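Lab meeting notes turned into a lecture example. A postdoc, R.K., suggested we walk through two folding results consecutively so the class can see how the record format repeats. The first protein's sequence and structure tokens come next.
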Amino acid sequence: MPTSATELYLPAPAKLNLMLRIVGRRADGYHLLQTVFQLIDHCDWLRFRLRHDGQIKLNTPLPGVPAERDLTVRAARLLQGQARENYGVEIEVEKNLPMGGGLGGGSSDAATTLVALNTLWNMGLSDEALEELGISLGADVPVFIRGRSAWAEGVGETLTPVVLPESWYVVVIPACPVPTAKVFAAERLTRNSKPITITDFFEGQQTNDCLPVVLDMYPQIRSAVEDLAKQRQHARLTGTGACVFAACASKAEADRVAASLRDKWPLFVTKGMNHSLLHQTLGRSS
């Protein structure tokens, strides 16, 4: 693990939603989901340096995002409220995951921050305790703390580990970030899909209820889906988008598909993982 007593350098892996069903809505307006999170090996990387003065400093702010709104800072302040010592931290983020892409980059950065500072600040909190804190930052944060590919229900926080094929994927990144709230507010969004079982998913029920809405709202995403589908039979949307992806039988096939699209689209090739690269870097079993 690349670490010292005062510094940690850790990945924040992305995820793909292999399916997404909206099965209801709570009284508070949050949508009830069924989804499958596939962790992948494409990551942001975060460096944490211990401070002893209680200050939390983000050295790499995102353009247009005030530091106090950044999820890494919010995660650090949330955990700092549980700490017994006057610890602080300097955070640097190497940002590789697009904002508004449906890859969970902000949530994963927050999860890695909670996991890292739990270690750096010698807090000794369990993953379950970190998940309870993390859910207030975003519904996807717990799956990144848990570090396992998972079947998820509720608002995405009720997790059941699943073993998925560790496929190679081509992920296309249309240049149109998608605000999740905009998709969930759409009038024509399906909100009453029939719940399915994990077995149903493995037998092929892998639709994304957000796809028709997103394709209508964003012609660029429609074009990306069409272009990827010409190379692969099944092009899918991750989360509410914007990224679209397709599974391939091998890295060689994924590289071939990527080469055919690279002149038109930003994209990357990545491998599915059942165990998070964050946990592997920390030397932990998930």
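The second example is placed directly after the first for contrast:
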Amino acid sequence: MSDNNGQRKFKRVLLKLSGEALREPGSTDNISPPIVEDMAQQIKQAHQSGVEIALVVGGGNFWRGVSASNRGMERATADYMGMLATVMNSLALQSMLEAIDVPTRVQSAIEMKNVAEPFIRRRAMRHLELGRVVIFAAGTGNPFFSTDTTAALRASEVGADVVFKATKVDGIYDSDPNRNPNAKRYEAVSYRECIERQLKVMDATAFSLCEENSTPIVVFSMNEPGNIFRALTGHAMGTLVNASGKL
């Protein structure tokens, strides 16, 4: 939905953050408190505007299951370790959000009752209705699925209007813009084209889930100060992925 200024208005959104985004570039620290605080402040501003917000955060700042399996570790075990890494990041975000008075719940797909609620769809939706930010941790609870797929799945389950994918670049390109200075950025692109052209900003399963449930995706850069707030509150930016491939 758009207003007369072209700004998209959303009631309920899901924001996907990478684990690496919580780390200062070049630092050996897994989590940078100042970076997490900046994210929390932007989420708080969007939350105060009335947007219902759910989050999924990756675990790549601690552990990458695929990389570990490529080095000889059994894949399912490596993926479970990655799920636990997402719980640590989720708790860090929860702590920072609650320190600035944003009511928050962490729901984990792997039961760990001392630190998080189990994922229960109806409870998650009720939290959102009551104005709480919900952070979905531990992926889908199953190996072989990425946190991008988790974001698409949870967005569909709770009825989010859109999935926001925060990245290091300002949208989806037809090739790697860091390697190809002539790479073309899409203003809008269809789910089918993303899958067929293997535009790897998200995996094919995530694109397919969003396509099946008619959930648009917005891919945007989080490197520009304030972009998380602007994205969550509907300012047009980045690349829109939908069925038509049109704005």
